[in-house]
Amino acid sequence: MRKPWIAISALAVAVTSASAAEVYVVDRGRSEAKFEVRYFYQRIAGKMRDIHGGMVLDPANPAASSVNFSITVASLDTGSTGLNAQLRSAYVLDAAKFAKISFQSTSITPTARMNVYQVTGELTLHGVTRSVTLPVELVRILNDPGGLARAWFLVRTTLNRKDYGITWNGVLDRASLLVGEEVKLTVNLVASKKVATP
Questions:
Q1: How would you write the pLDDT of the chain (198 residues) with one tens digit per residue?
Q2: Engineered SS bond to 173: which of 19, 41, 54, 168, CB 3.0-4.6 Å?
């Protein structure tokens, strides 16, 4: 006679655990990815604003959370029309062929720092997929007057462009004379969900 009650209790625990996770959608108007790389004797910087994706957040159990997002390469903007065209061209990022930069998490673990997590996942860039671990900081979660809860995340990492087959010039790029190999990437990711009405 106890088995049905055990099953019901287990189901109740599972439902409670599942309900703790909340789905957030990336806010395209507030999110952006910034990059910086050496170009000759100076550093150039730019941003990409067209970001899509979502996440499942479980504050009580971060390991049960997940995140996925993609960045449209054609949204790249350095402030220079000519440089934008070069970076989007087939010689560098090839935005026509590889339209998206995407990330899908596979595991999330807390760190010793409050609200900072190690997020491991598959990063696809320039048609190459590699496993990476990103330090992700949950900056804050706020409720706004419009009835939305907004979560702001900050990601800072450095990628080697050659790991993803991104080159500049067949001869000069061997010694990275034109463009540095390391690309600093900062992603400000804002996501939101509707707040339940009391």
A1: 444 434 333 333 333 333 468 999 999 999 999 999 987 778 889 999 999 999 998 878 888 999 999 999 999 999 999 989 988 998 889 999 999 999 999 999 999 998 899 999 999 999 999 999 999 999 988 888 878 889 999 999 999 999 999 876 554 455 445 678 899 999 999 999 977 655
A2: 168
**Which residue bears the tokens 């957040």?**
57
* Sign of the alpha-carbon torsion through 127, 76, 121, 160: positive
Q: Which domains does the chain have, with CATH numbers?
A: 21-194 (2.40.128.110)
> In this structure, what DSSP letter does residue 196 have?
P
Phi, psi values for residue 74, rounded to 5°: -65, -15
| 46 vs 57: CA distance, rounded Å | 29
The secondary element (H helix, E strand) that includes residue 189 is: strand 182-194
pTM: 0.81
- Sequence-separated (6 or more) residues with CB below 8 Å from residue 24: 54, 55, 56, 57, 149, 151, 191, 192, 193
Instruction: Output DSSP code: residue 89.
Output: S
